[in-house]
Amino acid sequence: MGKFGFVIHPFDALDLARKFPFVNRFSAPLVESFLKHSPPLLASHMENIRASGADAEGWLVATTLTARQLVELPVPFVLRKIVAACKKAERKGAQIIGLGALTSVVGDAGISIARQLKVPVTTGNSYTVATAIQATCQAASLMGISLGRANLCVIGATGAIGAVCARMMAASVGRLVLTARDEQKLEGLAGMIFSESSVLADIQTDLREAVREADIILAVSSAAEELIHPEDLKPGAVICDVARPRDVSRRVATLRDDVLVIEGGLVEVPSGWDGKPFSFGLPHGIVYACMAETMLLALERRFECFTLGRSIGVEQVREIDALARKHGFQLAAFRSFEQLLTPEEIVKIKERVDMKRKKKILAP
């Protein structure tokens, strides 16, 4: 049996209150101050994960830092907190450890953490890339968007996930726009894409300007705050939000009924698992792709640093996707802002977009 650990963290004080309601009695700054000095917590034991004749079990361990703290506190302090969580999983018997959400981007994206452990580490980003591309293409198809004529904007393009997503999708779309804060890194990525696929990608450091003309937005930043707002989106836009915490403002859900927002990187585990329930805000049997990668490696008994650092190879993405298909892992049903998105709701969004376009054409 393969055994794994997976490190998680609360997005904010409100997220913590969902698991521990008594937290609501205290202010967010007070909660964060307490979390800063708290030891890691064992959140859940996942037992009897079975697929294709293999089995695994795992432990979810929470490092008690919020998304804001992971980004803003000194890197050495944050790394010590993450390593402490990893070592707790080690003591439980984990043979490989996955880094969830922002724990995978701190410092050198897991390399320093792996050096301090006895077992290998993976960020899970390779399978996140595979599922992000699959979800983006499916969502675009449902909205009647032809990839070959679409304007694709990748937010957080110079990050580990964003860069390989852009490279793998470059030749499939009509126009590719890369956006991030560092113009020099954007130019380097654009040069790599041209050398690989002869595609001339546009670069843009002004995120709001970049998304205004986008038909498809793939949001994969490592920001702790919301980046995409309702006033910046064109009607009919498809946004695949892979970032955790999310890049898309919740106001989009209430103010824009003419765009499709899906949560990227959600995976259905074929057999589910046993053990004490633990909710990510997802139904039982659904996990994030980074966690699914860790599960897959445990099922395969491949105890290796499969995805580590800020460079992901295209072949890595294809390899982990093949393992997922072997074990029956697949994209989960679309969700938007933690709610199931039915096919009927997607049809209604498309109908509203079509109606707006017709009115625009007929307007004098």
Automatic annotation (TrEMBL):
<dbReference type="InterPro" id="IPR006151">
    <property type="entry name" value="Shikm_DH/Glu-tRNA_Rdtase"/>
</dbReference>
<protein>
    <submittedName>
        <fullName>Shikimate dehydrogenase</fullName>
    </submittedName>
</protein>
<dbReference type="InterPro" id="IPR036291">
    <property type="entry name" value="NAD(P)-bd_dom_sf"/>
</dbReference>
<feature type="domain" description="Quinate/shikimate 5-dehydrogenase/glutamyl-tRNA reductase">
    <location>
        <begin position="146"/>
        <end position="257"/>
    </location>
</feature>
<dbReference type="Pfam" id="PF01488">
    <property type="entry name" value="Shikimate_DH"/>
</dbReference>
